[in-house]
Structure formats: structure tokens, C-alpha cells
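Minimal example, chain plus 4'-deoxy-4'-aminopyridoxal-5'-phosphate.
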Amino acid sequence: MTILTPTSNTGAANAGLPDEALLNRMASEFFALVPGAAQAAAQFLPGFSEAGSAPVASVSAPGRLSSVSESGNHSGSNAGAALTQPSTQPSIYASAIPQNGGSSVAPSRPQAGGAPLSTPAASTTPYYFIGADNGYPVADGNLDGLAAQGTGRQADQTLARSFGLPGQDQLQQLLGELYPANTQAAPAAGADADARPAYYFQQGEQDYWDTAPRAANPALAAPFDINAVRRDFPILAERVNGKQLVWFDNAATTQKPQSVIDRLSYFYEHENSNIHRAAHELAARATDAYEGARSKVAKFLGAASVDEIIFVRGATEAINLVANTFGKKFIGAVDEIIVSQLEHHANIVPWQQLAAEKGAVIRVIPVDDSGQIILDEYRKLLNSKTRLVAVTQVSNALGTITPVQEIIALAHSAGARVLIDGAQAVSHLRVNVQALDADFYVFSGHKVFGPTGIGVVYGKKALLDQLPPWQGGGNMIADVTFERTQYQPAPARFEAGTGNIADAVGLGAAIDYVERLGLENIALYEHALLEYATHGLKSIPGVRLIGTAHEKASVASFVLEGYQTEEVGKALNEEGIAVRSGHHCAQPILRRFGVEATVRPSFAFYNTCEEIDRLLAVVRRLANQKRN
Ligand code: PMP
């Protein structure tokens, strides 16, 4: 086995087409800057109106859109959306974070004797978002009802409306029409064209994260009722060391809404059975629930078919499955596997094991000083021997959002397949595997508000059909004699034995929850949290942020001069604040930045600026203690 490590760490190259998020942002900047762009945008943005009161997409952060009126006044609401209005304080603060009266006992919750599960129409549901179509057991094995692949969400599941983003083609057309010579924004008449660059990525050496935190702007409202959301997560009322828990370890695992907890209970109370084999009522219920969850995952990822969704234990098992099936069949001696320097150990070790067995070569894409993949270096690594590119969509250690669309397109043009590790992405970003053209996409349920012990491999059906099984046993066979075995087609071929039925069903409930909030809303809100935290941390002497890419999601890794990361983690824990300190199972990328460990607060949509203030106060106190 040969491992070629990166030799160049310099020069953030950004060649090739920008990804869809980038294009959305470029268009958004246009609309904010260019008179008349609104009329043009009206052609492309569904629901877009030229009226001054109508929302015009504007840039709030990389990859995120907030609404702003054409006059430039921010408005916390999006027309027609069920959004909260800004109050005098940033509504990103929870005005009434659930308190627990000093007790460590979780607050009692309405249970209603098993409702809402046995009564899906659930008007009595304790969850603010659950309506008539709360999605409890649905054996919707086909995807006919799937809304446009761009959203992967049915309109009737949406309370908070998405922003109706144009597609990449539409944006390029729009850019071309407005500025035929090139796609750089011309200075807007009357606008102070020199005051800021046309696009954030044209800022050169200027650090994007130097900009003032938008969360300090009272106009930036959470696009959902943050207090109601927090009440959906009973554990957030826990007290730790006498303080209300602050859960900033979301990159390690996320907390579970009551609807997921109840769904698991309901399964065991009313549906528990093994699936597929038995011909009785509970087997039918369990099978419906399990296959209904598969259908939800397929919609969530924008897959073409439920047959492309394989349930596994988590992202780690998912990658091992691909290594042991696709890898064993299609990767041989001197073939090459490309990973990035950002990878979690789960997306390194299985490839090393495969490479050791097969005599294959692992090549590593370097990152620049901000922690972003250098596409030019990646281009140089691709060649006719490349069989697989396996990269993360969001780095768990740094938070970098990688340009997976370009990575996949480049790999395909070199004839290679691509696995995207979506473990850190699916809870923060809208994913559409068909739009990405990913060959494999993997994630873990527990990082997207679902149970532990359940995860997903998405694989293109035509590809899965070519793969051998990984494990043998029950469920995955069509016929067995002592001489030979015929296997089931995908996905059953890859699900030997009794799977984690209940937790798959729980994952379905978690997806329902996330879809109700809307990933676009989640992304918008979380990015504001990240900006707020980043700005706060940067203002503390002795703090060094690790990972400052323009495109980031929900992770603010840092080290504090004069302190071990465990000391910072311990001081935070004493105040009830849970962060991960350590190497985050991503040692190569931390070493790229000259550290062995970081403190890693990581955010979810139920976190608030008030909680970030509590973290900042501890870090500031530690920093001051060292200096005095
Ligand atoms: N990839 C990434 C990017 C991750 O963050 C993680 C979990 N930290 C994994 C893979 C592995 O996930 P799991 O432990 O749930 O299998």
C-alpha cells in the first residue's frame, strides 16, 4: 500500500464552476446591488415579487439567504412563511429558555396515552409543528408525491416556506443576461461600488469571518419559533453542575425531539415484530414502519428510488460496506483512491485497509490555510487509475463545507466513482444526491436528531446491482441450497440479518421533524449562530480559530493559548456547557494546522446566542486569568 500525502498547502485555488450555493449567493448579491435586477429575478425566483414590500433574497452568510426588502431594510419574515417577527433583542436569543425550577428531572410532557402516534391527525400533539400529516407510519414505497427534486420536500409538509432558490442553470442564464461580457457584477448605479467586493470570494486576503456578526442585528430573526423548538427537546431542560445544560456537542451527536422518543416507544408498544418474514399483523405493521422510514430517507436525500437506500449502523459501517463491496470488486493493485485531508478517520481507515489488501494507492487532497480543499491540487491527483474519490461534505473538525458538486463532476470526468460522507452535512444542508450526481452518499441517524445505531448508504441503483453482498445471512437471500445461494437485489442484499428496525423508524420521525423546520431555515439560523460565535471567539485574546473557510457549517474549533483543550472543556463543563475537546477522530487535519486537539463547540438549530454568550464568558475568563 502506498500513501501519497499532500505536498502543497498553499494557494486556495477556486477554479471551475462555483457550486449551486455559490451561485445562489452571487445572484442574491445582485439583487441587493443592482437596480432592475429585481425584475429579472422575478422571472426566475418562484414567488418573487418586484413590489417593494416583497422579500428579496440577500446574502446573510455563505450559502444562506435571508430576506430583505428592496429598500434594504431587513425583515425577519418571509412573506407567507410562518416565521417569528423580530423583537427588540435579537430573536436568535431564546427569550424563555425552558427552565426546570432547579430540578434535574425532565419536565413532564403531555403524553395523551400514546397520542399522537395512534391518532395521526393529532390535534392534541404537544409538538408545535405537527399537523394532520405528521407522517406516522406511512408505507409510501413510491416517490410519486415527491416535490421538485430541488427541495425533496412535499409542499404540505412545510410550515416555514423555503426561499425558492433558482437552479444553477437559471442563475447562469440570469448572470449572462445581466452581464453578458462576464459574470462579475457591474457597479450598481448609485451604489458605493468600491465599498465592498461584488462577491464574498473576491475579498482576496480579507477574512470573511472578520465581518460583524449578523446575530447582533436584531432584524435577523430565527426563521422558526426557537422557544417552541427548544421545548421539543426535553434534554435541553437538564441541569448539569447546577446550570442549565448547553449542548454544543452536536457534531458528536444531536439531541432527540420528543417526537422521535415517542415514535420509538410507540414502535415497541404497538408494532414490534421482525419484518418481512412473518405473516401476521405485527409483522405487517413493523414492515410498514420500517419501509416507510426507508421512503422518508429516500425523499430526504432526493434519491430516485427507495431501492437505493440501505440501512446500516451508521456512517462508519456505511463506508465499510462500500469499501467491502464496491472496493473489493472495482479497486485493484495500483488503482488509486482519493480522499481529502479533512476526512474523519471513518473515511480514511476503511480505505487504508482496502488499499493494504489490494495494493492500491491512497492520494490525499490538501487544504489551504482556511481549511478548504484546494481544487487545483485535486485536479492534479485525478488520473486514469483513480477508481474512487471519497470526501466529506462538511468537516467534523473544522466545519468546512467542501465543493462536492465540483469534486463529483471532476471525478466523473476522470471515470472515477464518488462517495460523499454526509455525516456532518445532512443536519445542516439540503442534500439532493441526484442533483449532486453522487454515486454513494452516507450518513448517521444520530447526527440528524435520530437514534444511535442507524445509518444510511445511498447508492445509485445501477451501481448497487453490480455489487456483491458484504455480509451473508437471512433477509439478503432469494434462495439457498448447500451448493449455492441466490441473493436478493438491493437494498435487501446488503441488509443481512435482523436490522435495527425500531431505530430506522425513529430516524424517519427525525427526518419528519427536520423537514418541518425546513433545512433552508435551519441553515440560515445556524449560520447566524456560527457568525456570532466566531466573532465572539475572535475577540478574545489568545484564541486561535482552527478552520476559517468561507463556507462553513456549525463548527467553531479553537485553541486557547496557555491551556490544554481538556482544561477548557472542563471549565465549560463546570458551567453546564458540553463541548468536545480532543482530536475529533480527524487527526490528519488537526496536524495540518499544527495542533493535536481543539475545543469544538458545534451548533444546532436549538442553540441560541445566549448560550454562546455563556461559552464566551468562560473562555474570556480563562484568557484573562492567564494574562493577569
Ligand atoms: N464522518 C464524519 C464526518 C463524522 O463526523 C463522523 C462521526 N463523528 C463519522 C463519519 C462517523 O459516524 P458514526 O460514528 O456515526 O459512524
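Confidence is low (pLDDT under 50) at residues 4-206, 214-219. The two ends are 52 Å apart (CA to CA).
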